[in-house]
């Protein structure tokens, strides 16, 4: 709007009569003389002059409305209101003009005859335009304040700078983050607080962006106290009033970086743990490509772990047959969705060595995808496999040896027993037929010979029993030890009565044992206690207690005892203690006891004091579910 006094009115396509001009003049409205000519301003000329603010208002005829609306589609030019003058019948044209650009309208007859009314309409149009300008200004100011508030209260730091990096404006968040005042920051360059990049690299980055394009990068901001913190920056390249400027948003990512560092440390630790595992550990996808391989796996392939990743078995294994077999295993695990375990499979290493593995493979879903992969771990059991094969061979040899020993024992038993019986028979016959001719010394010699033959017979029987412990035994089963002990007691009844032996036992439990061999164990230990009781009648006590899932039996006597240095030897075949001359044992009974206990998975040992008795201890397993 013009700032001069009075109103300057332009007319377009209209000639204003003199009397109307005089009336308008009385209202301080001046109509340019140039516009009153018959050749009034053209629409284009009027619009151009109005744009330079030469006029305060314009009156246009209805004949120029369409051209005017095309030329100036908005309500006026730079705040200059337009009044449309229409002839009768063109009211619709006036309404359209009011909707698009006109501030007021009058009838053409008003222009030619009612200057006062025309002046009123002109002032009304100008007043309305002035109100609109004020409202627009208030709206713009309100918008500016809102934008400033958004700018200052943005959660991220914001800085506006030019193409050289000079700071033009900053928000409150940047002030808080850096510890500078706003005025200090506005006098600085971006390079003054960006410690992660030098100004040359920043300018190179800025120059690569097109106007309207956004770029991102990470940087490091330096505070006023010299400390730094990491930031992520979003940069918008703008053109404002023909000048290139940059609007940058910087977010403090300290927590994210700390989280990423912690996550990376956890990954590194997990990787270290994986690589420390002595077994092969690996992951393969559905295509057979390795997603992960620990150092052990890579060593077998002659590669580094990262060299294995992305390859298939066919690419890392020298043996194609093995590679295809492993691939089939992987397909089966993925297709079935079930784990698989292979007790024994062979793997040829990069060195050409064949290793034996025990392998387990498990299907699992790769995180963040719908793909199924295979997690595998394999243990090298080459040495164990070799040992087991050798052990199997030794077992076969031992089994064959035992069978041969069994056959030998039968043969020896038969072939030796028969001559011994013949010797005993002829000695008895000699004594009975020629007793009158034999003196006491001869009879003593005959007794020695008979006793030796009988002793040899007992030793052969005992040796045969020893050989049958492993070959003739039954599978252990729950057995009432008390009942078996009573049977053994009855078997020794005659010997017990002859020696006036006293034998007592606790309430014996049910144990897991071969019934026949348990009876032999009791008989041998009781016989041993009676045999070496000394000069007094034998006294034997049998006790038992439960310990750690098994029963510990104790068979104690008050006999002659055993020397400490003999305590291990007495369990060997034909080994007798130093007090054995006081008994008639075969030297095999205790060896049989040890073999029986060993077969049942137990232990046997002795505690003794010479002249003060002996206690034999042995353990037998308790039946499953037995609470004692």
From TrEMBL:
Pfam families with a match to the protein in the record: HATPase_c (PF02518), HisKA (PF00512), PAS_4 (PF08448), PAS_9 (PF13426)
All residue ranges annotated as the PAS domain in the record: 143-185, 266-337
Gene Ontology MF term list: phosphorelay sensor kinase activity
EC number: 2.7.13.3
Keywords, alphabetical: Kinase, Phosphoprotein, Transferase
Ranges of residues in domain Histidine kinase: 411-624
Keyword Transferase included in the entry's annotation: yes
PROSITE patterns (UniProt xref): HIS_KIN, PAC, PAS
SMART domains: HATPase_c (SM00387), HisKA (SM00388), PAS (SM00091)
InterPro entries, alphabetized: HATPase_C_sf, HATPase_dom, His_kinase_dom, HisK_dim/P_dom, HisK_dim/P_sf, PAS, PAS-assoc_C, PAS-like_dom_sf
Reactions that this protein is recorded to catalyse: ATP + protein L-histidine = ADP + protein N-phospho-L-histidine
Domain of life the protein comes from: Archaea
CDD domains: HisKA, PAS
Residues annotated as domain PAC: 215-265, 340-393
Listed PANTHER family: PAC DOMAIN-CONTAINING PROTEIN (PTHR43304:SF1), PHYTOCHROME-LIKE PROTEIN CPH1 (PTHR43304)
Name of protein: histidine kinase
The species this protein was found in: Natronomonas pharaonis (strain ATCC 35678 / DSM 2160 / CIP 103997 / JCM 8858 / NBRC 14720 / NCIMB 2260 / Gabara)
């Amino acid at each position: 709007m013009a700032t001069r006094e009075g109103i300057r009115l332009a007319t377009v396509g209209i000639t204003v009569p003199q009397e109307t001009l005089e009336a308008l003049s009385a209202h301080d409205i001046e109509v340019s003389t140039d516009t009153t000519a018959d050749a009034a301003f053209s629409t284009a000329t009027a619009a151009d002059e109005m744009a330079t603010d030469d006029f305060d208002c314009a009156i246009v005829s209805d004949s120029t409305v369409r051209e005017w609306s095309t030329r100036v589609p908005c309500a006026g030019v730079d705040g200059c209101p337009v009044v449309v003058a229409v002839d009768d019948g063109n009211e619709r044209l006036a309404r359209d003009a009011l909707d698009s650009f006109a501030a007021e309208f009058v009838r053409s007859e008003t222009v030619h005859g009612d200057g006062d009314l025309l002046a009123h309409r002109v002032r009304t149009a100008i007043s309305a335009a002035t109100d609109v300008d004020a409202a627009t200004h208030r709206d713009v100011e309100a918008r500016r304040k809102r934008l400033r508030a958004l700018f200052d209260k943005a959660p991220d730091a914001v800085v506006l700078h030019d193409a050289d990096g000079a700071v033009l404006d900053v928000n409150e968040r940047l002030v808080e983050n850096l510890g500078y005042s706003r005025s200090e920051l506005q006098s600085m360059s971006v390079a003054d607080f960006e410690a992660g990049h030098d100004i040359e690299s920043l300018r190179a980055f800025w120059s690569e962006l097109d106007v309207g394009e956004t770029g991102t990068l990470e940087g490091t901001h330096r505070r006023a106290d010299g400390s730094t913190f990491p930031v992520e920056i979003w940069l918008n390249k703008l053109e404002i009033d023909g000048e290139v400027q940059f609007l940058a948003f910087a977010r403090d990512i300290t927590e994210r970086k700390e989280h990423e560092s912690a996550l990376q440390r956890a990954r590194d630790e997990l990787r270290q743990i994986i690589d420390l595992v002595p077994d092969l550990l690996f992951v393969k996808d559905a295509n057979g490509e390795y997603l992960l391989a620990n150092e052990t796996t890579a060593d077998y392939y002659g590669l580094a772990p990262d060299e294995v990743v992305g390859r298939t078995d066919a690419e890392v294994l020298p043996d194609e047959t093995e590679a295809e077999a492993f691939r089939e295993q992987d397909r089966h695990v993925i297709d079935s969705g079930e784990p698989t375990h292979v007790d024994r499979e062979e793997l040829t290493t990069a060195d050409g060595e064949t290793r034996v593995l025990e392998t387990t493979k498990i299907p699992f879903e790769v995180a963040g995808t719908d793909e199924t992969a295979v997690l595998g771990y394999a243990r090298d059991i080459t040495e164990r496999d070799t040992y087991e094969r050798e052990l199997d061979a030794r077992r076969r040899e031992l089994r064959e040896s035992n069978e041969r020993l069994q056959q030998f024992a039968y043969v020896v038993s038969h072939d030796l027993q028969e001559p011994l019986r013949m010797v005993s028979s002829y000695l008895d016959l000699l004594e009975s037929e020629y007793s009158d001719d034999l003196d006491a010394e001869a009879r003593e010699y005959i007794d020695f010979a008979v006793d030796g033959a009988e002793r040899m017979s007992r030793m052969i029987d005992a040796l045969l029993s020893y050989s049958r412990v492993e070959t003739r035994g039954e599978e252990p089963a729950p057995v009432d030890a008390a009942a078996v002990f009573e049977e053994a007691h009855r078997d020794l009844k005659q010997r017990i009565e002859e020696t006036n032996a006293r034998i007592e036992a606790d309430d014996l439990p049910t144990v897991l044992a071969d019934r026949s061999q348990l009876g032999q164990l009791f008989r041998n230990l009781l016989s041993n206690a009676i045999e070496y009781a000394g000069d007094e009648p034998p006294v034997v006590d049998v006790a038992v207690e439960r310990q750690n899932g098994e029963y510990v039996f104790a068979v104690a006597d008050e006999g002659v005892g055993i020397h400490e240095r003999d305590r291990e030897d007495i369990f060997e075949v034909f080994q007798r203690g130093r007090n054995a001359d006081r008994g008639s044992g075969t030297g095999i009974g205790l060896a049989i006891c040890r073999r029986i206990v060993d077969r049942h998975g137990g232990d046997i040992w002795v505690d003794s004091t010479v002249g003060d008795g002996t206690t034999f201890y042995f353990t037998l397993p308790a039946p499953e579910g037995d609470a004692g």
